[in-house]
Amino acid sequence: MRAVLSGACCLLAVLLAQPVAAQGPFDASVKVEAPPPVPPRSPPRVPKAAKEAAKEPKQPLTGEEQARAARHNAWTIGLAGELPEGSFAHYAADLAKALDDGENLRVLPIMSYGAVGNVLDLLYLNGVDVVITYADVLDHFKNAEKIANLERRLNYIIPMFQGDFHLLVRPEIKTVQDLAGKRVGFDTPGSGANYTGAIVFDRLGVKVEKVLVNNALALEAMAGGELAGLVHIAAKPNALLARLAPELGFHFLAVAYSDKFRDYYVPAELTSADYPSLVAEGRTVETISVQAVLAVHNAPPDSDRTRRSVRFVEYLFDRFDKLRAAPFQPGWKEMNLAGTIRGWTRFPPAQAMLDKARARASVDVALARAQAARAAPGDLVEQERLFKEFMQWSGQPKRP
């Protein structure tokens, strides 16, 4: 089941280069002397205090401190989100606050590159146990990276919010085709905007000059005319874009849903209620969205990594209702623990917990249909598929 949710703008650094003195025409009669040899550089001086400190033997931890260090690390989870202007960072912070239980469980949010980078971190970076990513990156790692046994190694815990495709442009840009050949910001390497943005423009058949720059900086570049637009993937309303002044004249371009996007995307819309300074009152802008995923490495069942991941899932399921209340992101209210993600495999311990819960679950059919409508607005076929999928999981009869 899919769901919907709802930055800091930086100044661009300006590098000033010293002008090079002009030179006259080359005169072959002038003898050029070889430059004198450069004397060897002496090694850097090390302060006396640093030298003395290096000589001091390291003090071993006492038995009490060793036990404390073991407790401090035993139930710590590294959770990769992204940079502050994206949605992942806010949801990672929510999980850290809601699931915190001192030495019993501590979640450490990590600033990271984003959707694609997070998967690489999960697979290869020490200290990363759980990540937030987008569902469409799975194809990249299967087909482009060609990582073996990816479906077994990369599992999901739950589907999260919908990441909406924001295509923000300057005033003179009226259609997506107007961007052909122009410079467009695709956020930083490893981000969802970088990956999904490339997919969208490729499928639309519009070739642009991709500029990989943080979107907070890209906004400054747009204001100066250096970029024609930018791609931003985030739950709406996104703070980075919502606070833009209307005087800039920036606006969103529509990206209509079609069969080109049926694999991982669903129809979505941006409204004046979401972005009053960017969308005229009462108007909507068609776009698409992609499912955010809470993912985990499916390590061997008897490994320390799995032991900690299982406890994380237990706390998540136990405290999920807590996340649905203030002060956490309102998008938690739209999420369904039992929702599935096409093409992905659920983390086996999480599936086992859901199977146990299914036996005693009471399903609100009206809520299930409402969630399906929010996940796939305007697509009745997809809404019905999502509803039936959930009812089948819950073991409930399919009622109208």
Q: Supply the CATH class of the largest domain.
A: Alpha Beta
Query: With helices defined by DSSP (H or I, 4 residues minimum), what is the helix count?
Result: 14
Name given to the CATH architecture of the largest domain: 3-Layer(aba) Sandwich
Write down how many β-strands occur, each being a DSSP E stretch of 2 or more residues.
Answer: 10
Q: How many domains make up the coordinates?
A: 2
**What fraction strand?**
15-25%
The average pLDDT is 84
Intertermini distance: 18 Å
Helix content: 25-40%
Q: CATH H level of the largest domain: which superfamily?
A: Periplasmic binding protein-like II
Rg, rounded, reads 26 Å
SSE string, helix = H, strand = E? HHEHEHEHHEEHEHEHEEEHHHHH
Low-confidence stretches: 1-35
Biggest pleated sheet: 10 strands, mixed
Described by the principal axes of the CA atoms, the overall outline is globular
- Here the CATH topology of the largest domain equals D-Maltodextrin-Binding Protein, domain 2
Structural class: alpha/beta
Characteristics:
400 residues, alpha/beta, D-Maltodextrin-Binding Protein, domain 2, ten-stranded mixed β-sheet, 14 helices, 10 strands, disordered N terminus
Please characterize this protein's 3D structure.
- Strands 1, 2, 3, 4, 5, 6, 7, 8, 9 and 10 form a ten-stranded mixed β-sheet that branches.
- The relative contact order is 0.16.
- It contains 14 helices and ten strands.
- Helix 13 packs across helix 14.
- The protein has two domains: 71-360, D-Maltodextrin-Binding Protein, domain 2 (3-Layer(aba) Sandwich); 361-400, no CATH class.
- The radius of gyration is 26 Å and the shape is globular.
- It has helices at 48-55, 63-74, 88-99, 115-124, 137-144, 150-153, 192-204, 215-223, 239-242, 304-318, 320-323, 348-358, 365-375, 380-394; strands at 76-80, 106-110, 130-134, 154-169, 183-185, 209-211, 229-234, 251-252, 265-271, 284-297.
- The two termini are 18 Å apart.
- With 400 residues, it is of the alpha/beta class.
